[in-house]
């Protein structure tokens, strides 16, 4: 169950009073203000909002890529706002799967090697790693393209490899920042179908930022970022452009 | 190492650029090797100079002779273990440009004085019996294609006539640095053939002392013996003599150091720029690596190790090329008696290459380390 | 139609860091190249300027240099009467000389170096007309007096005016300093040949060489013919300038060979650096190149354009390298003359032709570093580049 009023107790992801300010050109921009969020395991949440509203900032904070000005974020009981940089790095490796809009894959490595990357940080043996990688690639339907280089794959296939990499170490949740942003409609649909499979079949928790309402519709819940806080959205509100 | 794939894949990202950068290192180190060879060629004599040997020359001028009668007197001075003498011949073999040192020697005492030169007993014995005999160094023999038994004609310069010698043997040095270009023949023949006014003279004496710690005292004693005579002497340790000789050549060290500095500085710039460009191209990927859980330190090391691998491979290639070049022989046709690359120089060169590798990689590496994922991916 | 050069200039300005790197690489190479060649040229010039075009030198037939030659007093007298020899108020302009070397401590290192000591006749200044006594006076014949060359007095300690030095078992007084116009003589010490013969236990009336001043440049052949024909003289005759030219050869060849090898290796390195810069320039600008092609500029103009860019960079590098080493011009240094084993002071000599050679070398490196990337730029497929792939 997803809540934005700070009333959750046993959620997987618990955010309280999240505040983020940064400075641009001498001005202080208060992008997130006293934001609350509760997400349970297996939830699929979409975040929408005008550009500059802070949705990527929120995602970065949730993923331990950035540090808030105030507030707390706890994931599976771990309070990540008080972790050191190196602990955060380790935490990320174990708990978060990232899917960005671009730059995801290292062009000089094959699909297999790209997916293997997170596993190199673990103590798994070479054959164990191979097993996990093959499994992940099969889940995303690219078992036959394991040794292709990114340039030999289409945009949609590249994103699928990214997704395989994001799930290969079985993270606590997945963070997607505009995962379909660069893709044509057909590929975008394939990716969304895959993500839904991950949620429904593999019980993954997914937090996704998007500007595309069609994509957002696939999620269980859509939250709008307005004036630094999250508001639950309905279809009418979205269609009428109320959030703008 | 399990990260090898990542490292190698990144190195080979742009093969041409990799080749050119390794090539830059190879070129710089080849030049370094060449400069080390030149330096060794000029200063090498100093290093191999006998620790227990002294050189006695005429005080007035090195080109003035000393009387043969001094031999006995010198050998009786306290602290002297052995004495030999030699004369500079300075002849021309075929062409003035075919330079090599020729000495008229006293064979038995000479061989004892210079144990670093080895020659087969049979050849040496033939030489001893042959008044017109000669021994040549392996390098000179190879240069002119001489074989034992050949007849070698050498035209005298300040001594008239064409002198013919039988090549009875070829000597070799025992250390890489030894001079294998000399040509020795019998002083007896020399004495017989020189005009009357030159007879009874030697060019210089070489003295072996019983204890090198007392070299200075023995040298003083020798000079004192002949002070105020028509042929005053000047005695130095072989090392000091060689060092003084080198200093006269001119400021070779400075020249070499300057060129070396220019070369390494340029190398640093070129490779630094290349590494910086290569890291800049990968900002997005490096950010993703960090997002996925690779530490800042990891990324720093990734870039640094790339740089070191390039430096190491390029450095080794360059040094090997320089070594190979020395095997082709002296390009100045005999002006440099030593032409080889000392092992110590190769080690120094490799270390220098690695240092340049670190220096050129450190700035982009630190930049990569400091990269904030949020900033790098903001470019979307 | 050609791509405007302003495009190249602006592009270079944009990527100035890479460009500077290539420029410095080329500048360094050109600098070393010019410096080494100017060292060789300076050495040669110093020696060659020792000779006057209307002087001739006579040595024993077959000798390779002064040091292994001998000419007797009787032969000198014959030469004085030879056709073509100029005569002056002091008699025939003929000087019979010997050269020896003696060790003196160098000011710079404190260790000894061999100085060339020339025993001359009293008429030597008539023959060597570019030599002038600038301080003190000429030595008195028969006395142990020295006149010291300008460079010698600066290079060695103790050879100053009024000082006494010991060598050869005798004490000598320095009575004059001479200026020999930047030639090898400036590094020499002169004294009376007869006194020197005595000191060095040489036969009294035997000299090593005779140098004569001719009536005119053209009289050389006449003089030479008469000397060769005379059975009492077994001599070689050469113009003084030719003699010194030959003398300079050994060290000049050495410096030029070693310097050439260094320059070539550095040049290869500079070309690699230029290639790196240009290839990455082409890669970074692939979209612009594609745009230019789409606009109608053909492959040829693209090749020309990038090559010109490389040439511009290397031109700057070459000029910079030349400017950087210009201060060396005239800087005095010393080396051993391998022919005489004596120390010789000489100056770096950078001539305009040498600078031009340096710049041409730079352009050559730039061309090699630019032509291949230029061809790659031209051959790049247009459409994919426009799409930004």
Q: Any descriptors?
A:
heterotrimer, B: alpha+beta, ten-stranded mixed beta sheet, two-stranded antiparallel sheet, 12 strands, C: 389 residues, alpha+beta, two-stranded antiparallel ribbon, 13 helices
Description:
The complex is a heterotrimer of chains A (244), B (380) and C (389). In chain A, helix 4 crosses helix 5 and helix 5 packs parallel to helix 6. Chain A has a single domain, classed as Rossmann fold. Chain A contains eight helices and ten strands. Chain A is 34% helix and 25% strand. Chain A has a six-stranded mixed β-sheet, with helices on both faces. Chain A starts with 12 loop residues before the first strand and ends in a 5-residue tail after the last helix. By secondary structure, chain B is α+β, with helices and mostly antiparallel strands. Chain B folds into two domains: 171 residues, no CATH class; 172 residues, no CATH class. In chain B, strands 1, 3, 4, 5, 6, 7, 8, 9, 11 and 12 form a ten-stranded mixed β-sheet that branches. Chain B has a two-stranded antiparallel sheet with strand order 2-10. In chain B, strand 7 and strand 8 form a beta hairpin. In chain C, strands 1, 5, 6, 7, 8, 9, 10, 11, 13 and 14 form a ten-stranded mixed β-sheet that branches. A two-stranded antiparallel sheet of chain C has the order 2-12. A two-stranded antiparallel sheet of chain C has the order 3-4. The two termini of chain C are 27 Å apart. Chain C is elongated, with a radius of gyration of 29 Å. Chain C is an alpha+beta fold. Chains in contact: A-B, B-C. Chains B and C meet through helix 2, helix 9 and helix 10 of B and helix 2, strand 5, strand 6, helix 9 and strand 15 of C.
Rg of chain C to the nearest angstrom?
29 Å
Structural class of chain A: alpha/beta
Say what oligomer this is. Answer: heterotrimer
For the terminal residues of chain C, how far apart are their CA atoms?
27 Å
Task: Summarize the main sheet of chain C.
Answer: 10 strands, mixed
CATH superfamily of chain A: P-loop containing nucleotide triphosphate hydrolases
Determine the N-to-C terminus distance of chain A: 26 Å
- What's the rounded overall pLDDT mean of chain A? 87
- The CATH class of chain A is identified as Alpha Beta
Stretches of chain A where pLDDT falls below 50 for ≥5 residues? 235-239
The CATH topology of chain A is given as Rossmann fold
Kindly estimate the percentage of residues of chain C that lie in beta strands according to DSSP: 15-25%
Number of strands of chain C: 16
Structural class of chain C: alpha+beta
Q: Describe the biggest sheet of chain A? A: 6 strands, mixed
């Amino acid at each position: 169950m997803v809540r934005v009023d700070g009333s959750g107790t046993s959620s997987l992801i618990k955010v309280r009073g999240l505040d983020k300010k940064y400075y641009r050109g001498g001005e202080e921009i208060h992008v997130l203000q006293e934001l609350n969020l509760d997400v349970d395991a297996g939830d699929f949440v979409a975040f929408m909002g005008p550009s500059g509203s802070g949705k990527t900032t929120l995602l970065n904070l949730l993923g331990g890529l950035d540090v808030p000005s105030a507030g707390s974020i706890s994931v599976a009981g771990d309070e990540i706002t008080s972790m050191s940089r190196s602990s955060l790095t380790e935490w990320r490796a174990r708990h978060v799967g990232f899917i960005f809009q671009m730059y995801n894959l290292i062009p000089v490595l094959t699909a297999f090697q790209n997916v293997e990357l997170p596993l190199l940080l673990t103590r798994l043996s070479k054959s164990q790693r191979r097993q996990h990688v093959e499994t992940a690639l099969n889940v995303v339907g690219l078992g036959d393209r394991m040794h292709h280089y990114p340039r030999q794959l289409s945009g949609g296939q590249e994103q699928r490899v990214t997704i395989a990499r994001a799930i290969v170490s079985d993270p606590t949740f997945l963070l997607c920042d505009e995962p379909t942003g660069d893709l044509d409609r057909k590929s975008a649909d394939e990716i969304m179908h895959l993500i839904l499979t991950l949620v429904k079949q593999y019980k993954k928790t997914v937090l996704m930022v998007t500007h595309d309402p069609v994509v957002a519709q696939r999620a269980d819940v859509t939250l709008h970022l307005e004036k630094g806080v999250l508001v639950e959205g309905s279809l009418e509100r979205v269609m009428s452009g109320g959030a703008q | 190492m399990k990260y090898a794939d990542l490292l190698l894949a990144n190195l080979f990202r742009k093969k041409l650029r990799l080749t050119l950068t390794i090539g830059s290192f190879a070129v710089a180190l080849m030049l370094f090797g060449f400069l080390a060879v030149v330096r060794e060629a000029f200063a090498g004599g100093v290093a191999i100079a006998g620790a227990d040997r002294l050189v006695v020359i005429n005080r007035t001028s090195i080109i003035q002779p000393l009387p043969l009668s001094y031999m006995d007197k010198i050998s009786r001075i306290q602290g002297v273990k052995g004495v030999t003498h030699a004369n500079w011949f300075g002849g021309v073999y075929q062409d003035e440009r075919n330079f090599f040192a020729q000495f008229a020697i006293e064979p038995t005492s000479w061989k004892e004085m210079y144990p670093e030169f080895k020659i087969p007993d049979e050849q040496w014995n033939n030489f001893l019996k042959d008044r017109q005999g000669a021994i040549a160094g392996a390098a000179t023999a190879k240069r002119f294609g001489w074989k034992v038994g050949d007849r070698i004609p050498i035209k005298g310069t300040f001594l008239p006539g064409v002198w013919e010698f039988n090549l009875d043997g070829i000597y070799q040095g025992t250390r890489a640095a030894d001079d294998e270009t000399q040509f020795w023949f019998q002083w007896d023949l020399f004495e017989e053939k020189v005009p009357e006014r030159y007879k009874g003279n030697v060019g210089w004496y070489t003295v072996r002392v019983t204890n090198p710690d007392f070299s200075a005292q023995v040298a003083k004693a020798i000079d004192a013996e002949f002070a105020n005579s028509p042929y005053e002497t000047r005695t130095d340790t072989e090392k000091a003599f060689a060092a003084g000789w080198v200093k006269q050549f001119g400021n070779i060290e400075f020249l070499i150091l300057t060129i070396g500095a220019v070369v390494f500085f340029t190398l640093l710039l070129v490779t630094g720029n290349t590494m910086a460009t290569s890291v800049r191209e990968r900002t997005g990927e490096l950010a993703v690596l960090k997002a996925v859980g690779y530490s800042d330190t990891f990324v720093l090391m990734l870039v640094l190790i790339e740089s070191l691998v390039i430096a190491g491979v390029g450095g080794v290639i360059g040094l090997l090329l320089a070594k190979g070049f020395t095997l082709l022989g002296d390009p100045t046709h005999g002006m440099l008696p030593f032409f080889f690359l000392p092992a110590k120089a190769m080690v120094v060169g490799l270390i220098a290459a690695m240092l340049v590798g670190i220096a050129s990689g450190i700035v982009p590496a630190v930049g990569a380390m400091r990269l904030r994922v949020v900033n790098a991916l903001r470019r979307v | 139609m050609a791509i405007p050069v302003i495009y190249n200039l602006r592009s270079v300005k944009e990527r100035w860091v890479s460009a500077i790197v290539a420029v410095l690489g080329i500048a360094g190479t050109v600098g070393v190249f010019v410096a080494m060649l100017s060292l060789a040229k300076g050495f040669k010039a110093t020696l060659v300027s020792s000779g006057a075009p209307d002087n001739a030198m006579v040595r024993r037939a077959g000798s390779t240099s002064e040091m292994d030659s001998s000419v007797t007093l009787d032969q000198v007298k014959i030469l004085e009467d030879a056709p073509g020899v100029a005569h002056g108020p002091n008699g025939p302009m003929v000087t019979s000389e010997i050269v020896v070397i003696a060790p003196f401590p160098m000011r710079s290192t404190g260790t000894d170096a061999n100085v060339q000591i020339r025993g001359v006749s009293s008429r030597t200044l008539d023959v060597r007309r570019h030599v002038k006594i600038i301080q003190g006076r000429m030595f008195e014949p028969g006395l142990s007096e020295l006149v010291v060359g300008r460079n010698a007095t600066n290079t060695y300690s103790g050879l100053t005016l009024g000082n006494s030095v010991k060598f050869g078992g005798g004490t000598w007084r320095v009575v004059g300093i001479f200026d020999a116009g930047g030639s090898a003589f400036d590094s020499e010490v002169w004294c009376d040949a007869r006194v020197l013969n005595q000191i060095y236990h040489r036969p009294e009336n035997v000299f090593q060489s005779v140098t004569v001043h001719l009536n005119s440049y053209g009289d050389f052949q006449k003089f030479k013919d008469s000397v060769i024909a005379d059975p009492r003289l077994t001599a070689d005759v050469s113009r003084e300038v030719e003699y010194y030219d030959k003398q300079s050869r050994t060290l000049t060849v050495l410096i030029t060979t070693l310097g050439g090898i260094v320059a070539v290796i550095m040049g290869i390195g500079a070309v690699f650096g230029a290639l790196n810069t240009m290839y990455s320039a082409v890669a970074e600008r692939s979209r612009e190149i594609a745009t230019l092609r789409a606009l109608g500029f053909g492959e040829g103009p693209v090749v020309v354009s990038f090559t010109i860019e490389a040439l511009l960079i290397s031109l700057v590098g070459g000029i910079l390298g030349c400017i950087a080493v210009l201060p060396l011009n005239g800087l005095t240094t010393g080396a051993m003359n391998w022919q005489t084993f004596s120390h010789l002071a000489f100056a770096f000599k950078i001539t305009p032709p040498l600078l031009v050679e340096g710049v041409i070398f730079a352009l050559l490196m730039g061309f090699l570093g630019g032509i291949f990337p230029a061809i790659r730029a031209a051959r790049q497929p247009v459409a994919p580049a426009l799409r930004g792939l």
